[in-house]
Design goal:
Distance between the termini: 103 Å
Order of helices and strands: HHHHHHHHHEHHEEHEHEEH
Number of domains: 2
Structural class: alpha+beta
Number of strands: 6
Strand order of the largest sheet: 2-3-1-4-5-6
Strand content: 5-15%
Radius of gyration: 59 Å
Number of helices: 14
Mean pLDDT: 82
Low-confidence stretches: 1-13, 414-429
Length: 429
């Protein structure tokens, strides 16, 4: 933008309204103060006329008064509402000292040499104080040279020496050339200032654009952060859900071996730390392979889900129920001793048989039944949970070999362990 402004001096101010407004405002101030200076100069010339030519002082004052009023009027108009017409008003202000000097040339013979010298300096002063655009300045110079030419003609008619007229013409021509050069310098300075202003405006615009980009990036990052927080919360929820699913058996919905290992380790640590007892009840469905072979695996899966549902309904609050593997189920009974194991084991086996799930290949009942082995978990064996599980498994096989659909409790103090028929368990309850 700065290069375009320097290539065409007037393009910037003509095409850019804001720069044009700045130029008009500066020109308005220049014309205002120039009009005041011209008014003061006309007043000084009128006062000097009283002393230099008393005989024509009244005529000089009469001719100078309209010029003085015109300068003051121009100052008033350009200050209030002259921004729109500031160029013609500025040209008028520049012509007023020419007319006052012409009056001095005609009416004050003693001051003609000084007046003619002033005529040559006025175009230079005009270019300095009222920096018009090139076309307006050239138009003003044409008018100023017409006034200068009329002054030279007036001197010839008044009988002045030709040398003074020639000197006045030369001074006018020299003043015109200097005025053009000064105006060109003013225009170049203005173009340079406009280019700098445009560069600053461009930099400010880029800064605003950059600020908007940063604001949009902040908004985008904030949205991304919110999305990330939501995604992290969802990920945590899914992780928790996956952890829960990873600890559940897919078919029965009971705890799986991973969940059993964790709960059994926690229970053993609590017994080792605080004492007390707990029970491990391991159950296996009787002749389950025959059910799969005769009725199919879908019927076997249905039987497993049915047994799992019975065990959930039968278990106490706080006890853990797990699918140990295949058709095996395990129950961890908190705060349970050997007598409690007998009652709990009977309750589970009775509930499974009472569910009435058909199993024709499981004589003599013709229903799904289970055998169970149990052992007590105490401070004596809680440090070796694998041994406790092995004891429960051994007790389960003893129950299987003893006729199925019954419970055998492993007793560490007695060997071999005693069998407790299911009928006796029911009678005891």
């Amino acid at each position: 933008m700065q290069e375009r402004a320097t290539q065409n001096p007037n393009a910037t101010t003509h095409k850019d309204r804001r720069l044009r407004a700045v130029y008009r405002r500066e020109l308005q101030n220049s014309v205002f103060y120039s009009a005041l200076i011209v008014g003061a100069g006309i007043t000084a010339a009128a006062v000097a006329g009283f002393f230099q030519a008393p005989s024509v002082a009244l005529v000089t004052s009469v001719l100078m008064l309209p010029l003085l009023l015109a300068s003051l009027g121009a100052a008033r108009v350009v200050r209030r509402r002259g921004r729109r017409y500031v160029i013609p008003i500025g040209m008028l202000v520049g012509l007023l000292p020419l007319f006052s000097t012409w009056v001095a040339v005609v009416l004050m013979p003693g001051e003609r040499a000084t007046s003619m010298a002033c005529l040559g300096l006025i175009p230079l002063a005009f270019a300095i104080f009222i920096p018009l655009e090139r076309r307006a300045h050239i138009a003003w110079l044409i008018l100023a040279n017409l006034v200068l030419f009329s002054a030279v003609v007036s001197m010839v008619l008044l009988g002045e020496s030709p040398s003074l007229s020639i000197a006045a013409a030369v001074a006018g021509a020299l003043g015109t050339v200097l005025s053009l050069a000064t105006n060109d310098l003013q225009l170049r300075r203005r173009v340079q200032m406009n280019g700098q202003l445009l560069a600053v405006r461009g930099l400010y615009s880029r800064m605003k654009d950059h600020e908007q980009d940063l604001r949009r990036q902040d908004e985008f990052l904030f949205m991304q952060q919110e999305t990330l927080v939501v995604q992290q919360a969802e990920l945590l929820r899914l992780n928790e859900e996956l952890e829960s699913i990873a600890r559940l058996d897919a078919l029965t919905g009971l705890g799986n071996r991973l969940r059993l290992n964790e709960d059994l380790a926690a229970l053993a640590a609590r017994i080792e730390r605080n004492g007390g007892t707990a029970g491990v009840l391991l159950m296996d469905l009787d002749r389950f392979k025959r059910l799969n072979d005769s009725a199919g695996h879908l019927a076997g899966d249905a039987a497993l889900r049915g047994v799992a549902d019975v065990m959930r309904k039968t278990s106490r609050s706080g006890d853990g129920v797990y699918r140990y593997g295949g058709e095996e189920f395990l129950v961890l009974l908190h705060d349970c001793d050997e007598s409690g194991l007998q009652v709990a084991g009977q309750r589970y086996l009775t509930a499974i048989e009472a569910a009435g799930m058909a199993h024709p290949d499981n004589p003599p009942h013709g229903l799904v039944t289970a055998s169970a082995g149990a052992t007590e978990l105490s401070a004596a064996n809680c440090t070796d949970v694998d041994s406790a599980l092995h004891d429960a498994d051994e007790a389960l096989y003893v129950a299987k070999r003893s006729g199925r659909n019954r419970l055998h409790i492993h007793n560490q103090a007695e060997a071999p362990t005693a069998l407790i028929p299911l009928d006796q368990q029911r009678a005891a309850s």
